Structures are given as C-alpha cells and as structure tokens.
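Task: complex structure prediction.
Instruction: return structure tokens for all chains below.
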Amino acid sequence: MAWAKRGHEAAFRELVRRYERPLFSLLYRMVRDRTLAEDLAQETFIKVLNGLDSYDPQFKFSSWIFKIANNAAIDHLRKREVETLSLDGSPHATTPDAMSATALQLGAPGETPLQEVEARELGGAIEQAIAKLRPEYRACILLRHVEGHSYEEIARILDLPLGTVKTFIHRARNELRIHLEDRRS
Amino acid sequence: MDGPVTQHLTPEEIELWAQGLLPAARDVHLAQCGDCRASAERERKLLRELALLPRLTPEFGFVERVMAKVKIRTPSGEFKH
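Output:
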C-alpha cells in the first residue's frame, strides 16, 4: 500500500490484480450485466488509484475499495432504476404483460454470445435467487457469504449501523431460502 | 430469564454453528431443540450454496485497461498517463 501510495506502477498493477476478481464478482452480481460491471470495476479502480492520498489507513484497504465499488453499483441502480428489475419483471408493472415485458431474460433463444455467457454465469438457481433480493440485501449477502467480510466490515462498507446489517443479512437469507424452495417445489 | 440452554439460537449463532464455531453451551440447546436443528440444517444448506459461488473474471486485459487510465507518478514526481 505504501508503495502504491507513492504511485509506483508495479504496486498499482498488483492492487488491480489482487482485487479485480472480487470487485468484478460483486459488481456483476449487483448489476447483472457483464459490460456494465466491468465499466464500474474500472471506474472503481481509477477512483481508488488516483485517490490513494485520501485513503485513511485506520480502515482496512479492502473495506475502502469495496465501499467505492458498492457505491458505484448502488448509484447506477438508483439512476437506472435497475433495482426494480427482477426475473419476474418490474415491481412497478401492474399487469402480467407489463411484468413479462420488464422481466429479465436469461438463456433465451436467439441470445448474443455475451448473453449466453451471462446466462451461463448467472443462470443458476442460487444466482437467480440473489438477483431477486433488493440491492441492499444483495450487497450484504455477497459481502458476507461470497467475499467473507465480517459484519463490522460490511457496516463500514455500506455505511449502515451494525444492527441493520445483521437484520438485512438475516432477512436476505430468509428470502433466498423462500426463492429457492419455490423453485424446487 | 432464559439461560443459554433454553434460549433459541439467533441467526448469527446458526451461522456460527454452520462454521463449527458455536460455543458448547449453545450446542446443548441445539441437541435438545428440534426447531433450532431444523433451522440450522436449512441455513447450513444455504450457506454451503453461497460459499460455492465462484469468483467471476472480467474480460482478458482488464488490468491493462485500468492501468491505461490511471495517473502514474514518475520518479521526478510528475504524472504520466
């Protein structure tokens, strides 16, 4: 980190290598669009590497970088209202046709090669159940159970009280179980 | 007041149990409580599925694409792009 702070190219490169997969995985599962997730991951790294002087070493570096990535995803979802996009369609849809028109299609016939990759990567039951969670729950579940952050770290990353993080994770796990049981029954 | 043996497991304790980290006193409750055992088993199954999710990889050349856009300080203290 000290080397990276002084702007050494090799240290920058090492930081990107170390975090590219964890950050990209989080962002991809948050926005469910490969190209967009890569753009957001790039944006995150550029912000982090160009802003290392503002990094406060009393916090874990991983918490800081995940916080920037998560903010980028949430900002995007808010702007585009993608948080309302689910496999069942927008919650704003009031008719079955509207739901169908706004539903996220995975593995549909005639898909592009990129859509095929996305369907393969995010098409499993557990991935689809995660997609149905609201963004805050999704972020909590991914940070806790995929990235292995502690509850305290997640509270710092998401700027939420510890109790809220615990509640979100508990509710998210209940929702995931219900989605998975629905699919399997 | 409920003691450690009679109180139901919290979601965090269930997570600890799934990781093999539940304190022995709480294990006693789990052994005696069918409801908690059933929830714990359901939770363990879900946590296993989540733990098996793979890390996903960006397109080849991602590091280079990032590095091309980052300001790098040269030994003289100036920035190169």
